[in-house]
Amino acid sequence: MEPYRRIVIKIGSSSLTNNDKLLDIAKLKALAHAVAELFKQGWQPILVSSGAVATGLGHLGWNRTNLTMPERQAAASVGQGLLMEKYNELFQAQGMKVGQILLTRADFADRRRYLNARNTLNVLLNSQVLPIVNENDTVTVAEIRFGDNDTLSALVAGLVEADLLVLLTDIDGLYSGDPRKDPNAKLIPVVRQVDENIIKIAGDSGSTVGTGGMRTKLSAARIAARSGVRTVVASAKEPRILLDIAAGEKLGTSILPSNHTLRSRKQWIAYGSIARGILTIDKGAVKALTEKHKSLLAVGVTNIKGNFQPGSVVSIVDEQGMELAKGITNLSSEDLNLAIKESQHGLEVINRDWLVCERSFSTCQV
């Protein structure tokens, strides 16, 4: 085993709490022991841990039903402190130091903050400190939320160039049907590509505590795959499964890395950034992007939505409104409108090096 291989471990709220929605200390202790063993084996683990809201609700005696956003954020502010206090205690007993990283979607959308987060994580890992990552639920609103820690963990895996992403959940992996309802459902051991057929197999969340289901895990695995990271979805019932997965045992469902991975900059454009505008392009431009791998020129743009500046990320859609790509524009919306009006057809809007055509958007190559 190569030293200092990186593994991102995501564990959900339902795997950390008991029936009363309070922190289950036995579960946390088992998780801490397994992560510490990975550390001793030469891995650099990153723990993406849910549980702040659930812990806060349990501690305050509040019901999750019909929570307002301020109530949810208040519960998170109480729960995050309790969660980190317990993690610090348990990992200290294992001889490990921990550091807390709270992120929002805006931290990934802003390129400078994105790089700052990467630098912080690298310093923690290289200093033999375990980063414990969670969404900053105390300040997030709908526009800047990841919505689930599955997506966050996949973005973190790409950010730190991890070797492996493990999504621990309340079932053994992806099944051909819902194993809680279908006795003939079979575990799918390997997924080579997360396409729409695979997504359809996934059901909704079966937990009253968490926010994500198998569908979000597969979406996260698709992000990780394009970042060159293998994902394993497995049961959190026995956290020592982490050691077996890290040793290469075939457990749970393994989602393989893509054959066409994205470099760091294009990872950010595709998954980290938030589009500030929408460009509709004609059939000729669609063909130029998807088949000829060309840059986007002004001649192909038929409509512009949004007010953006040069250097902004924009979404590119066809005439039916299907999103094909994202890219960083050379022009502001005002200058692009002027270029189209004055028939400056050859003006480059987005250079190919700053353009990402995603498999989830279309069949075009990067």
Report the biggest beta sheet as strand number plus sense, adding barrel if it closes. 8 strands, mixed
Strand order of the largest sheet: 3-4-2-1-5-7-8-6
In total, the number of strands is 15
Query: How would you classify the quaternary structure?
Result: single chain
The average pLDDT score comes to 87
Low-pLDDT runs: 205-212, 361-366
Taken in chain order, the helices and strands follow as EHEHHEHHEHEEHHEHEHEHEEEEHEE
Supply the CATH superfamily name of the largest domain: Acetylglutamate kinase-like
Query: What's the number of structural domains?
Result: 2
Q: Estimate the strand proportion.
A: 15-25%
CATH topology of the largest domain: Carbamate kinase
Q: Compute the gyration radius: what is it?
A: 22 Å
Count helical runs.
12
**Secondary structural class:** alpha/beta
Shape: globular
Terminal-residue CA separation: 32 Å
- CATH structural class of the largest domain: Alpha Beta
Percent helix range: 25-40%
Structure overview:
By secondary structure, this protein is α/β, with parallel strands linked by helices. It folds into two domains: 5-266, Carbamate kinase; 275-357, Archaeosine Trna-guanine Transglycosylase, Chain: A, domain 4 (Roll), CATH 2.30.130. It has twelve helices and 15 strands. It is globular, with a radius of gyration of 22 Å. Residues 205-212 and 361-366 have low confidence and may be disordered.
